[in-house]
Amino acid sequence: MIPYGRQCIDEEDVRSVVEVLRSDFITQGPVVEKFEKALAEFCGARFAVAFNSGTSALLAAYSALGLSEGDEFITSPITFTATANAGLWLGARPVFVDVEMDTGNIDADLIEEAVTEKTKLLSVVHYAGHPADLGKVREIARRYGLKVVEDACHALGAGYRGSRIGSCAYSDATVFSFHPVKHITTGEGGAVLTNDEDVYEKLLMFRNHGITRNPERFTSGSEGGWYYECQLLGLNLRITDIQCALGLSQLGKLESFVRRRREIAGVYRDRLRESSLFQTPVEKDYAYHSYHLYPVLVREEARRREIYEILRSRGVGVQVHYIPVYWHPLYRNLGYRKGLCPSAEAFYRREISLPLYPCMGKEELEHVIEILEDLEGLREVS
User: How far is the C-alpha of 279 from the C-alpha of 350, rounded, in Å?
Assistant: First the structure.
């Protein structure tokens, strides 16, 4: 089965991990900070804090920016549930805004009408690696005094109007994921980038039980070198040096990984340009797409399941991204109902993600495309 995504690990990555395993620190050591500094430098941000998952990073970012019980935050329904769930954990209510049919991203033109006096934060998802329209998002945020989080778990290596996603040029914080199917991997892991030093300090504390060892932040005098203070309700969301050694090695390959993803996307685009079955994704003039996913839309909604099952039966591990978040039982039980975001629901009913990952070989890619071209002649399941 050719998967829709997978990690690409080489001997350099393996050696980096082994080196840490043989060192004095396998967690809470120097490699975590080294990875954070390299990630911040790559993206053009002042600070980066690494976490044990992208979900943990989202939770920490929301908390550090003050999202709390009784607040509302605006986000997209076409995303993994973690984007919304992280806010629920803090007692806030997600408000879902519909998406653009061509990118799958939140429709920035619809955000303002969803803002209420309870709105605290905008969590903007860069679906599949295509940046949302951050300029419009920032204008709305400034108008209403809102914080902006970029859920960039799909978008490491992407760009918006010449700035790298992660620079936080248009946001208060950017969140990445390092799950194996993402642009680089630490096994499991994530990070929050920010240019705000106070947010940075809160992220560090949230990751480590709410504890600070920074004397400049103590609320009372230090009693000695052992002294620390627990100043907020945090969790143990730490990442290990083992993981960060892998991440640091992978980060050195990121630009080549993104180039290869874009090459594969270009082959799909060219070969499916005249497809009667599929509509291929776009790249808008403000965006540099990093193609975490290659989501095609089936032109005939009623055929999506048939096409999905045929492709899977022929060894092409396609996937669907995503079931609208508010369709899940958790959200139905909170009062959300189908019909809330018509475009998102139409997008879901038509979307299939084709295989795309940097170490995907030419033969694998050609095999997938040949099967897709074969489907052009099918009209019903045999």
Answer: 10
Q: What is the pLDDT along the chain (382 residues), one digit of tens a residue?
A: 999 999 999 999 999 999 999 999 999 999 999 999 999 999 999 999 999 999 999 999 999 999 999 999 999 999 999 999 999 999 999 999 999 999 999 999 999 999 999 999 999 999 999 999 999 999 999 999 999 999 999 999 999 999 999 999 999 999 999 999 999 999 999 999 999 999 999 999 999 999 999 999 999 888 899 999 999 999 999 999 999 999 999 999 999 999 999 999 999 999 999 999 999 999 999 999 999 999 999 999 999 999 999 999 999 999 999 999 999 999 999 999 999 999 999 999 999 999 999 999 999 999 999 999 999 875 444 4
| Nearest Cα residue to 181 out of 292, 323, 288, 308 | 292
Question: For the chain, which domains are there?
Answer: 2-251 (3.40.640.10), 255-375 (3.90.1150.10)
User: Please, are residues 151 and 175 in contact by the beta-carbon 8 Å criterion?
Assistant: yes
Q: In what order do the strands lie in the sheet with 159-160?
A: 163-164, 159-160, 287-288
DSSP 22: T
Predicted model pTM: 0.97
Token representation of residue 121:
């934060």
Are 49 and 191 a contacting pair, CB within 8 Å? yes
Six-digit token pair at 58? Answer: 């989202």
Q: Is 365 helix (H, G, I), strand (E, B) or coil?
A: helix
d(CA 364, CA 295): 18
Three-class DSSP category at 49: strand
3-state secondary structure of 165: coil
Are the C-beta atoms of residues 169 and 143 closer than 8 Å to each other?
A: no
